Amino acid sequence: MADPKGFLNHDREVAKTRPVEERVKDWNEVYQPGSLLPIISKQASRCMDCGIPFCHNGCPLGNLIPEWNDYAYREDWEAASERLHATNNFPEFTGRLCPAPCEAACVLGINQPPVTIKNVEVSIIDKAWDNGDVTPQPPERLSGKTVAVIGSGPAGLAAAQQLTRAGHTVAVYERADRIGGLLRYGIPEFKMEKRHINRRIEQMRAEGTKFRTETEIGRDIDAAKLRRRYDAVVIAAGSTTSRDLPAPGRDLKGIHFAMEYLPLANKVQEGDLTVSPISAEGKHVVVIGGGDTGADCVGTAHRQGALSVTQLEIMPKPGEERNANQPWPTFPMLYKVTSAHEEGGERIYSVNTTHFEGDEDGNVQALHLVEVEFKDGKLEQKPGTERRIPAQLVTLAMGFTGTDKENGLVEQFGLELDERGNIARNADFETNVPGVFVAGDAGRGQSLIVWAIAEGRSAAKGVDRFLTGASSLPAPIKPTDRALAV
Protein backbone atom coordinates (compact mmCIF):
# COMPACT_ATOMS: atom_id res chain seq x y z
CA MET A 1 0.00 0.00 0.00
CA ALA A 2 0.97 3.65 -0.12
CA ASP A 3 1.75 5.67 3.02
CA PRO A 4 -0.54 4.26 5.78
CA LYS A 5 -0.94 7.78 7.15
CA GLY A 6 -1.01 9.57 3.81
CA PHE A 7 -4.65 10.55 4.06
CA LEU A 8 -4.00 11.93 7.54
CA ASN A 9 -0.87 13.87 6.64
CA HIS A 10 -1.89 15.37 3.29
CA ASP A 11 -4.93 17.30 2.13
CA ARG A 12 -6.42 16.88 -1.33
CA GLU A 13 -4.62 19.02 -3.91
CA VAL A 14 -5.57 19.09 -7.59
CA ALA A 15 -3.87 20.25 -10.77
CA LYS A 16 -3.38 23.99 -11.05
CA THR A 17 -4.92 25.83 -13.97
CA ARG A 18 -3.36 28.68 -15.88
CA PRO A 19 -4.67 32.21 -15.15
CA VAL A 20 -7.99 32.90 -16.85
CA GLU A 21 -6.74 36.03 -18.61
CA GLU A 22 -3.94 33.95 -20.16
CA ARG A 23 -5.76 30.80 -21.19
CA VAL A 24 -8.78 32.43 -22.87
CA LYS A 25 -6.33 33.90 -25.39
CA ASP A 26 -5.26 30.48 -26.67
CA TRP A 27 -6.63 26.96 -27.14
CA ASN A 28 -4.05 25.02 -25.17
CA GLU A 29 -5.08 22.83 -22.26
CA VAL A 30 -6.06 24.90 -19.23
CA TYR A 31 -3.69 23.20 -16.77
CA GLN A 32 -0.26 24.53 -15.88
CA PRO A 33 2.30 22.24 -17.54
CA GLY A 34 4.31 20.29 -14.97
CA SER A 35 2.18 21.35 -11.99
CA LEU A 36 1.09 17.81 -11.09
CA LEU A 37 4.32 15.87 -10.86
CA PRO A 38 5.72 17.65 -7.75
CA ILE A 39 2.55 16.88 -5.75
CA ILE A 40 1.33 13.61 -7.21
CA SER A 41 3.34 11.25 -4.99
CA LYS A 42 1.79 12.77 -1.86
CA GLN A 43 -1.67 12.69 -3.46
CA ALA A 44 -1.26 9.02 -4.37
CA SER A 45 -0.19 8.32 -0.79
CA ARG A 46 -3.70 9.30 0.38
CA CYS A 47 -5.02 6.00 -1.04
CA MET A 48 -6.02 4.00 2.03
CA ASP A 49 -5.50 0.36 0.96
CA CYS A 50 -9.20 -0.22 1.65
CA GLY A 51 -10.40 -3.70 2.52
CA ILE A 52 -12.95 -3.31 -0.28
CA PRO A 53 -11.89 -0.53 -2.69
CA PHE A 54 -15.21 0.82 -3.92
CA CYS A 55 -13.40 2.87 -6.56
CA HIS A 56 -13.37 -0.42 -8.50
CA ASN A 57 -17.17 -0.39 -8.45
CA GLY A 58 -17.42 3.25 -9.44
CA CYS A 59 -15.21 2.64 -12.48
CA PRO A 60 -16.77 0.39 -15.16
CA LEU A 61 -13.28 -0.47 -16.44
CA GLY A 62 -12.40 -2.00 -13.09
CA ASN A 63 -9.21 0.08 -12.97
CA LEU A 64 -6.69 -1.26 -10.44
CA ILE A 65 -6.58 2.09 -8.70
CA PRO A 66 -4.96 1.19 -5.33
CA GLU A 67 -2.21 -0.67 -7.18
CA TRP A 68 -1.18 2.15 -9.47
CA ASN A 69 -1.59 4.67 -6.65
CA ASP A 70 0.99 2.67 -4.73
CA TYR A 71 3.40 2.62 -7.68
CA ALA A 72 2.91 6.36 -8.24
CA TYR A 73 3.61 7.01 -4.56
CA ARG A 74 6.88 5.09 -4.93
CA GLU A 75 7.53 6.81 -8.29
CA ASP A 76 7.80 3.48 -10.07
CA TRP A 77 6.31 4.93 -13.23
CA GLU A 78 6.88 1.91 -15.47
CA ALA A 79 5.02 -0.43 -13.11
CA ALA A 80 2.28 2.17 -12.63
CA SER A 81 1.83 2.41 -16.39
CA GLU A 82 1.61 -1.37 -16.73
CA ARG A 83 -1.12 -1.57 -14.09
CA LEU A 84 -2.96 1.37 -15.68
CA HIS A 85 -2.91 -0.18 -19.15
CA ALA A 86 -4.02 -3.56 -17.80
CA THR A 87 -7.61 -2.27 -17.76
CA ASN A 88 -7.64 0.91 -19.85
CA ASN A 89 -6.47 1.35 -23.44
CA PHE A 90 -6.44 5.15 -23.31
CA PRO A 91 -5.86 6.54 -19.79
CA GLU A 92 -4.72 9.91 -21.18
CA PHE A 93 -8.29 10.33 -22.51
CA THR A 94 -10.09 9.34 -19.33
CA GLY A 95 -7.56 11.18 -17.14
CA ARG A 96 -8.55 14.40 -18.90
CA LEU A 97 -12.20 13.90 -19.80
CA CYS A 98 -13.86 11.44 -17.42
CA PRO A 99 -15.95 12.98 -14.58
CA ALA A 100 -14.33 10.39 -12.29
CA PRO A 101 -17.10 8.25 -10.79
CA CYS A 102 -14.21 6.40 -9.14
CA GLU A 103 -13.58 9.45 -6.94
CA ALA A 104 -17.25 9.62 -5.97
CA ALA A 105 -16.93 5.98 -4.81
CA CYS A 106 -13.58 6.46 -3.00
CA VAL A 107 -13.85 5.15 0.57
CA LEU A 108 -11.91 8.15 1.85
CA GLY A 109 -14.70 10.29 0.39
CA ILE A 110 -17.12 9.13 3.09
CA ASN A 111 -15.83 11.83 5.45
CA GLN A 112 -12.90 13.50 3.67
CA PRO A 113 -12.13 14.84 0.19
CA PRO A 114 -11.46 11.73 -1.96
CA VAL A 115 -8.15 10.74 -3.53
CA THR A 116 -7.34 12.68 -6.71
CA ILE A 117 -7.55 9.48 -8.76
CA LYS A 118 -8.00 11.27 -12.06
CA ASN A 119 -4.91 13.46 -11.55
CA VAL A 120 -2.80 10.46 -10.54
CA GLU A 121 -3.98 8.62 -13.65
CA VAL A 122 -3.06 11.40 -16.06
CA SER A 123 0.30 11.88 -14.34
CA ILE A 124 1.17 8.20 -14.77
CA ILE A 125 0.30 8.07 -18.46
CA ASP A 126 1.97 11.40 -19.32
CA LYS A 127 5.12 10.17 -17.56
CA ALA A 128 4.87 6.87 -19.43
CA TRP A 129 4.81 8.67 -22.80
CA ASP A 130 7.74 10.85 -21.74
CA ASN A 131 9.75 7.80 -20.66
CA GLY A 132 8.99 5.79 -23.79
CA ASP A 133 7.05 3.16 -21.85
CA VAL A 134 4.09 3.26 -24.27
CA THR A 135 5.05 1.13 -27.27
CA PRO A 136 3.17 -0.76 -30.00
CA GLN A 137 2.05 -4.28 -29.07
CA PRO A 138 1.54 -6.09 -32.37
CA PRO A 139 0.15 -9.64 -32.25
CA GLU A 140 2.54 -12.57 -32.32
CA ARG A 141 0.52 -14.23 -35.10
CA LEU A 142 -2.50 -13.41 -37.24
CA SER A 143 -5.77 -15.30 -37.07
CA GLY A 144 -6.71 -14.84 -40.71
CA LYS A 145 -10.00 -13.24 -39.62
CA THR A 146 -11.10 -9.73 -40.59
CA VAL A 147 -13.13 -7.20 -38.61
CA ALA A 148 -14.65 -3.86 -39.61
CA VAL A 149 -15.18 -1.29 -36.86
CA ILE A 150 -17.65 1.50 -37.69
CA GLY A 151 -16.78 4.63 -35.74
CA SER A 152 -13.49 5.84 -34.28
CA GLY A 153 -14.55 7.25 -30.94
CA PRO A 154 -13.33 5.72 -27.68
CA ALA A 155 -15.53 2.60 -28.00
CA GLY A 156 -14.46 1.91 -31.59
CA LEU A 157 -10.79 2.54 -30.91
CA ALA A 158 -10.80 0.33 -27.80
CA ALA A 159 -12.51 -2.52 -29.66
CA ALA A 160 -10.14 -2.14 -32.62
CA GLN A 161 -7.01 -2.18 -30.48
CA GLN A 162 -8.13 -5.23 -28.50
CA LEU A 163 -9.04 -7.17 -31.64
CA THR A 164 -5.84 -6.20 -33.44
CA ARG A 165 -3.77 -7.38 -30.52
CA ALA A 166 -5.76 -10.64 -30.54
CA GLY A 167 -4.44 -11.26 -34.05
CA HIS A 168 -7.36 -10.20 -36.22
CA THR A 169 -7.02 -7.83 -39.18
CA VAL A 170 -9.03 -4.75 -38.25
CA ALA A 171 -10.14 -1.78 -40.34
CA VAL A 172 -11.75 1.25 -38.67
CA TYR A 173 -14.21 3.28 -40.76
CA GLU A 174 -14.79 6.94 -39.84
CA ARG A 175 -17.11 9.30 -41.67
CA ALA A 176 -15.15 12.42 -40.69
CA ASP A 177 -11.85 13.41 -42.26
CA ARG A 178 -9.83 12.49 -39.15
CA ILE A 179 -9.87 9.63 -36.66
CA GLY A 180 -11.21 10.23 -33.16
CA GLY A 181 -14.97 10.69 -33.34
CA LEU A 182 -16.25 13.10 -30.70
CA LEU A 183 -12.81 13.01 -29.08
CA ARG A 184 -11.56 14.77 -32.20
CA TYR A 185 -14.34 17.18 -33.06
CA GLY A 186 -16.65 17.25 -30.03
CA ILE A 187 -14.08 17.91 -27.30
CA PRO A 188 -12.47 21.37 -27.44
CA GLU A 189 -8.71 21.64 -27.64
CA PHE A 190 -8.54 23.36 -24.25
CA LYS A 191 -9.92 20.21 -22.60
CA MET A 192 -7.71 17.76 -24.50
CA GLU A 193 -5.10 18.66 -27.07
CA LYS A 194 -5.46 16.45 -30.10
CA ARG A 195 -1.81 15.40 -30.03
CA HIS A 196 -2.92 12.83 -27.44
CA ILE A 197 -5.20 11.21 -30.02
CA ASN A 198 -2.59 11.43 -32.77
CA ARG A 199 0.07 9.45 -30.94
CA ARG A 200 -2.42 6.72 -29.97
CA ILE A 201 -3.42 6.42 -33.62
CA GLU A 202 0.24 6.02 -34.58
CA GLN A 203 0.62 3.31 -31.93
CA MET A 204 -2.41 1.48 -33.30
CA ARG A 205 -1.16 1.77 -36.89
CA ALA A 206 2.15 0.26 -35.80
CA GLU A 207 0.22 -2.62 -34.24
CA GLY A 208 -1.57 -3.27 -37.53
CA THR A 209 -4.92 -1.49 -37.29
CA LYS A 210 -6.04 0.08 -40.59
CA PHE A 211 -8.00 3.35 -40.76
CA ARG A 212 -10.43 4.52 -43.43
CA THR A 213 -11.56 8.15 -43.10
CA GLU A 214 -14.29 10.05 -44.98
CA THR A 215 -16.20 6.81 -45.40
CA GLU A 216 -19.72 6.63 -44.00
CA ILE A 217 -21.22 3.17 -43.79
CA GLY A 218 -24.79 3.34 -45.03
CA ARG A 219 -24.09 6.15 -47.48
CA ASP A 220 -20.65 5.61 -49.03
CA ILE A 221 -20.62 1.84 -48.53
CA ASP A 222 -23.72 -0.32 -48.26
CA ALA A 223 -23.82 -1.91 -44.80
CA ALA A 224 -24.90 -5.30 -46.12
CA LYS A 225 -21.96 -5.35 -48.54
CA LEU A 226 -19.59 -4.46 -45.68
CA ARG A 227 -20.90 -7.43 -43.70
CA ARG A 228 -20.17 -9.78 -46.60
CA ARG A 229 -16.66 -8.38 -46.95
CA TYR A 230 -15.63 -8.95 -43.30
CA ASP A 231 -15.88 -11.88 -40.94
CA ALA A 232 -17.35 -9.63 -38.24
CA VAL A 233 -18.47 -6.02 -37.81
CA VAL A 234 -18.47 -3.81 -34.72
CA ILE A 235 -20.84 -0.82 -34.80
CA ALA A 236 -19.43 1.94 -32.57
CA ALA A 237 -21.12 4.85 -34.29
CA GLY A 238 -22.07 6.69 -31.11
CA SER A 239 -25.26 8.43 -30.07
CA THR A 240 -25.05 11.35 -32.46
CA THR A 241 -28.66 12.48 -32.98
CA SER A 242 -28.93 15.73 -31.02
CA ARG A 243 -32.01 16.49 -28.94
CA ASP A 244 -33.84 19.43 -30.50
CA LEU A 245 -35.86 22.26 -28.95
CA PRO A 246 -39.19 22.65 -30.79
CA ALA A 247 -39.86 26.22 -29.64
CA PRO A 248 -41.31 28.98 -31.85
CA GLY A 249 -38.50 30.69 -33.77
CA ARG A 250 -36.27 27.58 -33.79
CA ASP A 251 -35.70 28.03 -37.52
CA LEU A 252 -34.08 31.46 -37.12
CA LYS A 253 -30.48 31.80 -38.28
CA GLY A 254 -27.93 31.66 -35.49
CA ILE A 255 -29.45 28.70 -33.60
CA HIS A 256 -27.26 25.60 -33.84
CA PHE A 257 -26.76 22.24 -32.23
CA ALA A 258 -23.63 22.07 -30.10
CA MET A 259 -22.27 19.42 -32.46
CA GLU A 260 -22.58 21.87 -35.33
CA TYR A 261 -20.78 24.59 -33.37
CA LEU A 262 -17.96 22.75 -31.59
CA PRO A 263 -16.48 20.78 -34.55
CA LEU A 264 -15.96 23.97 -36.55
CA ALA A 265 -13.93 25.51 -33.72
CA ASN A 266 -11.79 22.37 -33.68
CA LYS A 267 -11.41 22.57 -37.45
CA VAL A 268 -9.81 25.99 -36.95
CA GLN A 269 -7.32 24.46 -34.51
CA GLU A 270 -6.54 21.69 -37.00
CA GLY A 271 -5.67 24.35 -39.57
CA ASP A 272 -8.56 23.51 -41.91
CA LEU A 273 -10.27 26.88 -41.41
CA THR A 274 -8.98 30.37 -40.66
CA VAL A 275 -12.17 31.44 -38.90
CA SER A 276 -15.16 29.36 -37.84
CA PRO A 277 -18.30 29.96 -39.93
CA ILE A 278 -20.23 29.85 -36.63
CA SER A 279 -18.40 32.22 -34.32
CA ALA A 280 -19.31 33.87 -31.02
CA GLU A 281 -17.12 36.89 -31.69
CA GLY A 282 -18.90 40.11 -30.72
CA LYS A 283 -22.16 38.31 -29.93
CA HIS A 284 -24.38 37.66 -26.96
CA VAL A 285 -24.31 33.87 -26.65
CA VAL A 286 -26.88 31.62 -24.98
CA VAL A 287 -26.09 27.96 -24.32
CA ILE A 288 -29.14 25.80 -23.63
CA GLY A 289 -28.13 22.78 -21.57
CA GLY A 290 -26.20 22.63 -18.31
CA GLY A 291 -24.01 19.56 -18.88
CA ASP A 292 -20.43 19.07 -20.00
CA THR A 293 -21.22 19.72 -23.67
CA GLY A 294 -22.82 23.02 -22.66
CA ALA A 295 -19.70 23.92 -20.68
CA ASP A 296 -17.61 23.14 -23.78
CA CYS A 297 -19.73 25.65 -25.70
CA VAL A 298 -19.20 28.22 -22.93
CA GLY A 299 -15.40 27.85 -23.02
CA THR A 300 -15.36 27.98 -26.81
CA ALA A 301 -17.47 31.15 -26.86
CA HIS A 302 -15.08 32.82 -24.40
CA ARG A 303 -12.11 32.09 -26.66
CA GLN A 304 -13.94 33.36 -29.72
CA GLY A 305 -14.57 36.73 -28.06
CA ALA A 306 -18.25 36.64 -27.08
CA LEU A 307 -19.78 39.80 -25.62
CA SER A 308 -21.62 37.73 -23.02
CA VAL A 309 -22.28 34.04 -22.36
CA THR A 310 -25.37 32.73 -20.57
CA GLN A 311 -25.98 29.05 -19.87
CA LEU A 312 -29.53 27.83 -19.22
CA GLU A 313 -30.56 24.66 -17.38
CA ILE A 314 -34.12 23.42 -16.92
CA MET A 315 -33.28 21.52 -13.71
CA PRO A 316 -32.78 23.18 -10.30
CA LYS A 317 -29.29 24.18 -9.21
CA PRO A 318 -27.57 21.19 -7.58
CA GLY A 319 -26.16 21.46 -4.10
CA GLU A 320 -22.46 21.54 -3.25
CA GLU A 321 -22.80 18.54 -0.91
CA ARG A 322 -24.31 15.10 -1.45
CA ASN A 323 -28.08 14.87 -1.09
CA ALA A 324 -29.38 12.27 1.33
CA ASN A 325 -30.92 10.39 -1.60
CA GLN A 326 -27.52 10.16 -3.36
CA PRO A 327 -25.41 8.46 -0.68
CA TRP A 328 -21.83 7.26 -1.01
CA PRO A 329 -20.68 5.41 -3.14
CA THR A 330 -23.15 6.53 -5.84
CA PHE A 331 -22.26 9.31 -8.27
CA PRO A 332 -23.91 12.46 -6.88
CA MET A 333 -25.38 15.37 -8.78
CA LEU A 334 -23.31 18.28 -7.46
CA TYR A 335 -22.86 21.90 -8.44
CA LYS A 336 -19.75 21.79 -10.61
CA VAL A 337 -17.60 24.72 -11.68
CA THR A 338 -15.62 23.70 -14.75
CA SER A 339 -12.67 25.61 -16.15
CA ALA A 340 -15.06 27.19 -18.68
CA HIS A 341 -17.29 28.51 -15.91
CA GLU A 342 -14.27 29.96 -14.11
CA GLU A 343 -13.70 32.08 -17.21
CA GLY A 344 -16.95 34.01 -16.87
CA GLY A 345 -20.56 33.99 -17.97
CA GLU A 346 -23.85 33.50 -16.16
CA ARG A 347 -25.59 30.26 -15.26
CA ILE A 348 -29.37 30.27 -14.84
CA TYR A 349 -31.20 27.27 -13.41
CA SER A 350 -34.86 26.20 -13.37
CA VAL A 351 -35.76 27.98 -16.60
CA ASN A 352 -37.36 26.93 -19.87
CA THR A 353 -37.18 28.62 -23.27
CA THR A 354 -40.62 29.74 -24.49
CA HIS A 355 -39.63 31.17 -27.87
CA PHE A 356 -36.93 32.87 -29.92
CA GLU A 357 -37.13 36.38 -31.34
CA GLY A 358 -35.57 37.39 -34.65
CA ASP A 359 -34.84 40.50 -36.67
CA GLU A 360 -36.20 41.43 -40.09
CA ASP A 361 -33.48 39.35 -41.79
CA GLY A 362 -34.35 36.15 -39.94
CA ASN A 363 -31.43 36.25 -37.49
CA VAL A 364 -32.00 35.34 -33.86
CA GLN A 365 -31.78 38.41 -31.62
CA ALA A 366 -33.25 37.35 -28.30
CA LEU A 367 -34.50 34.42 -26.28
CA HIS A 368 -37.57 34.45 -24.05
CA LEU A 369 -37.58 32.24 -20.98
CA VAL A 370 -39.69 31.50 -17.94
CA GLU A 371 -38.89 30.05 -14.54
CA VAL A 372 -40.15 26.52 -13.92
CA GLU A 373 -40.62 24.16 -10.99
CA PHE A 374 -41.52 20.53 -10.54
CA LYS A 375 -44.87 19.83 -8.89
CA ASP A 376 -46.10 16.28 -8.44
CA GLY A 377 -43.52 15.11 -10.93
CA LYS A 378 -44.62 17.59 -13.59
CA LEU A 379 -42.81 20.66 -14.89
CA GLU A 380 -44.87 23.83 -14.44
CA GLN A 381 -44.19 27.44 -15.37
CA LYS A 382 -44.15 30.08 -12.66
CA PRO A 383 -46.46 32.94 -13.67
CA GLY A 384 -44.92 36.39 -13.83
CA THR A 385 -41.33 35.14 -14.28
CA GLU A 386 -41.07 35.61 -18.04
CA ARG A 387 -38.11 37.59 -19.31
CA ARG A 388 -36.09 38.32 -22.43
CA ILE A 389 -32.33 38.04 -22.83
CA PRO A 390 -30.27 39.09 -25.88
CA ALA A 391 -28.96 36.24 -28.04
CA GLN A 392 -27.25 36.49 -31.42
CA LEU A 393 -25.89 32.94 -31.15
CA VAL A 394 -27.71 30.05 -29.47
CA THR A 395 -26.25 26.56 -29.07
CA LEU A 396 -28.42 23.58 -28.14
CA ALA A 397 -26.52 21.23 -25.82
CA MET A 398 -29.37 19.15 -24.43
CA GLY A 399 -27.96 15.70 -25.02
CA PHE A 400 -28.54 13.04 -27.65
CA THR A 401 -31.44 10.76 -28.48
CA GLY A 402 -29.71 7.85 -30.23
CA THR A 403 -27.50 6.73 -33.06
CA ASP A 404 -27.92 8.09 -36.60
CA LYS A 405 -30.80 6.26 -38.27
CA GLU A 406 -30.96 8.44 -41.40
CA ASN A 407 -27.73 7.29 -43.05
CA GLY A 408 -29.11 3.83 -43.79
CA LEU A 409 -26.81 1.84 -41.51
CA VAL A 410 -29.57 0.48 -39.23
CA GLU A 411 -31.92 -0.34 -42.12
CA GLN A 412 -29.29 -1.88 -44.40
CA PHE A 413 -28.00 -4.19 -41.69
CA GLY A 414 -31.59 -5.01 -40.65
CA LEU A 415 -30.87 -4.18 -37.01
CA GLU A 416 -33.42 -4.34 -34.23
CA LEU A 417 -33.69 -1.45 -31.77
CA ASP A 418 -34.50 -1.56 -28.08
CA GLU A 419 -37.28 0.36 -26.35
CA ARG A 420 -35.02 3.44 -26.05
CA GLY A 421 -34.15 3.52 -29.73
CA ASN A 422 -30.63 2.14 -29.30
CA ILE A 423 -29.31 -0.86 -31.23
CA ALA A 424 -30.31 -4.01 -29.36
CA ARG A 425 -27.67 -6.60 -28.45
CA ASN A 426 -27.32 -9.82 -26.48
CA ALA A 427 -24.95 -10.71 -23.64
CA ASP A 428 -22.01 -10.93 -26.08
CA PHE A 429 -22.80 -7.46 -27.51
CA GLU A 430 -24.04 -9.16 -30.69
CA THR A 431 -27.03 -7.72 -32.54
CA ASN A 432 -29.85 -9.73 -34.11
CA VAL A 433 -27.62 -10.04 -37.21
CA PRO A 434 -25.02 -12.81 -36.69
CA GLY A 435 -21.49 -11.45 -36.71
CA VAL A 436 -22.58 -7.83 -36.22
CA PHE A 437 -21.81 -6.40 -32.78
CA VAL A 438 -22.46 -3.02 -31.19
CA ALA A 439 -20.37 -1.13 -28.62
CA GLY A 440 -20.58 2.25 -26.96
CA ASP A 441 -23.35 4.83 -27.10
CA ALA A 442 -24.94 3.24 -30.18
CA GLY A 443 -26.05 0.39 -27.93
CA ARG A 444 -25.98 1.95 -24.47
CA GLY A 445 -27.26 5.41 -25.24
CA GLN A 446 -25.51 8.66 -24.32
CA SER A 447 -22.92 7.89 -21.67
CA LEU A 448 -19.40 8.64 -20.40
CA ILE A 449 -16.03 8.04 -22.07
CA VAL A 450 -15.07 5.48 -19.44
CA TRP A 451 -18.18 3.45 -20.26
CA ALA A 452 -17.40 3.71 -23.98
CA ILE A 453 -13.93 2.22 -23.50
CA ALA A 454 -15.35 -0.50 -21.25
CA GLU A 455 -17.96 -1.30 -23.92
CA GLY A 456 -15.32 -1.48 -26.65
CA ARG A 457 -13.18 -3.86 -24.60
CA SER A 458 -16.17 -6.04 -23.70
CA ALA A 459 -17.55 -6.18 -27.25
CA ALA A 460 -14.08 -7.19 -28.48
CA LYS A 461 -14.28 -10.31 -26.33
CA GLY A 462 -17.63 -11.19 -27.90
CA VAL A 463 -16.21 -10.72 -31.39
CA ASP A 464 -13.09 -12.73 -30.60
CA ARG A 465 -15.20 -15.59 -29.25
CA PHE A 466 -17.44 -15.46 -32.34
CA LEU A 467 -14.42 -15.67 -34.65
CA THR A 468 -12.37 -18.28 -32.80
CA GLY A 469 -14.75 -20.14 -30.49
CA ALA A 470 -13.05 -18.89 -27.31
CA SER A 471 -11.43 -15.72 -26.01
CA SER A 472 -9.00 -14.68 -23.29
CA LEU A 473 -9.75 -10.97 -23.78
CA PRO A 474 -11.14 -9.13 -20.73
CA ALA A 475 -14.77 -8.01 -20.58
CA PRO A 476 -15.18 -5.52 -17.73
CA ILE A 477 -18.93 -5.00 -18.19
CA LYS A 478 -22.08 -6.65 -19.49
CA PRO A 479 -24.45 -4.79 -21.84
CA THR A 480 -26.99 -4.51 -19.03
CA ASP A 481 -24.59 -2.99 -16.47
CA ARG A 482 -25.36 0.54 -15.37
CA ALA A 483 -23.57 3.23 -13.41
CA LEU A 484 -23.46 3.04 -9.63
CA ALA A 485 -26.38 5.36 -8.97
CA VAL A 486 -29.77 5.61 -7.28
How would you sum up this structure, described in words?
The protein is of the alpha/beta class. It has a 5-stranded parallel β-sheet, with helices on one face. The longest helix has 20 residues. The mean pLDDT is 96.
- What is the count of helical runs? 19
Spatial strand sequence of the major β-sheet: 3-2-1-4-14
Whole-number radius of gyration?
23 Å
**What is the residue-mean pLDDT, rounded to a whole number?**
96
- The chain-level structural class is alpha/beta
So what's the overall shape?
globular
How far do the termini sit from each other?
Answer: 31 Å
- Which stretches of 5+ consecutive residues score pLDDT under 50? none
Largest sheet: 5 strands, parallel
Give the oligomeric state of the chains in this entry, treating copies of one chain as homo and distinct chains as hetero: single chain
Q: State the helicity in percent bands.
A: 25-40%
User: How many runs of DSSP E, i.e. beta strands?
Assistant: 14
Strand-residue proportion? 5-15%
Pfam families: Fer4_20, Pyr_redox_2
InterPro entries: 4Fe4S_Fe-S-bd, DPD_II, FAD/NAD-bd_sf, FAD/NAD-binding_dom, Glut_synth_ssu1, Glutamate_Synthase, Helical_ferredxn
Keywords: Amino-acid biosynthesis, Glutamate biosynthesis, Oxidoreductase
Protein name: Glutamate synthase subunit beta
